[in-house]
Amino acid sequence: MQAAPKRTIRIATRKSALALWQAEYVKAKLLEHHDSIVVELVPMSTQGDRILDTPLAKIGGKGLFIKELEVAMLEGRADIAVHSMKDVPVEFPEGFGLHAICERENPFDAFVSNHFDDLDALPEGAVVGTSSLRRQCQIRKHRPDLKIKDLRGNVNTRLAKLDAGEYDAIILASAGLIRLGMEERIKTGLPASVSLPAVGQGAVGIECRNDDAELIALLQALNHDETQTRVSAERAMNERLEGGCQVPIGSFATLDGDSITLTGMVGQPDGSTLLFASATGPTKNAKSIGVEVAEALLEQGAGEILSALYN
Ligand SMILES: NCc1[nH]cc(CCC(=O)O)c1CC(=O)O
Question: Which Gene3D superfamilies does the entry link to (predicted)?
Fold first, then answer.
């Protein structure tokens, strides 16, 4: 008797070291859980995810742009895309969804420096690299004397700029450094009380077409329920605030048995004002707790801070 043909799952991935690590991680997890599949990586040059000028680009509806990885999935060149949850927009193009969220890695920001052990050890006026408004406003609040200098590029580029002496310290996500085998670069983790993490930070999510039921069933084995609960509360907060990817918003949920606590932060980029709100409730209400925290922030004036940034 002939064995049933194995299903091949192709992972569309960007080519950065972190994107490839995440794709390999999902490949290994899929193979660990399923015997009868083959998994391939389909690395793609996504040129900063340019908006595609093709009829397919209009499928997104609602003004959402379909990106290169999604075009590959629509055209049948790939089956899934793997994302850092903190870079995933609130809404997906029509026909696509998030069908698994893997177990969260360390969610905190990392203090990285070649000469200093932590934020408080930096001399007055020291130069700290980050391009994140969320990190910037929290660091400015904590240490108003520090100079924040723009820092872009992938993780290796950012570390090279630190090593070249352009900064006294830089702030990166711990998860990215740990995944790339560079945990020893972390001088110290910044606790939530100093730098509340970004929505979904440290978690990897898997996107695929909503009409591929067989694939969606296979992906369920990779879903980590606790992570999914936490990230869904964090994302619900962001959605209610209409926060994009480049905003001074922090959102971090923790679990204690069947109870979830979510803390949210919206900050003035100069660090002059940081608004905080928290709520606790049963995990089954994760999303409504996210909305509750967002509304508490809006009541304190988060809407004014955010709309000033969009203009
Ligand atoms: N914005 C870039 C980005 N997107 C995901 C990570 C790695 C951490 C994660 O998966 O949350 C990073 C690097 C960083 O912020 O330092």
Answer: Periplasmic binding protein-like II, Porphobilinogen deaminase, C-terminal domain
Strand partners, 219: none
Angle between helices 302-310 and 286-299 (to 10 degrees): 80
Q: What percent of the chain lies above the pLDDT cut of 90?
A: 83
Answer yes or no: CATH 3.40.190.10 is held by domain 7-102+204-223.
Answer: yes
Q: Which CATH class is domain 109-190?
A: alpha beta
- pLDDT tier, 129 (very low <50, low <70, confident <90, very high otherwise): very high
> Which protein residue's CA is at the shortest distance from atom 15 of ligand 1?
173
pTM of the predicted model as reported, rounded to 2 decimal places: 0.92
Report whether residue 176 contacts ligand 1, using a CB cutoff of 6 Å: yes
Q: Decide whether any atom of ligand 1 lies within 6 Å of the 157 Cβ.
A: no
Q: How far, in Å, is the centroid of ligand 1 from the Cα of 201?
A: 7
| Angle between helices 286-299 and 225-240 in degrees, nearest 10 | 30
236-310 maps to CATH 3.30.160.40: yes
Rounded to whole angstroms, the Cα distance separating 187 from 256 reads 28
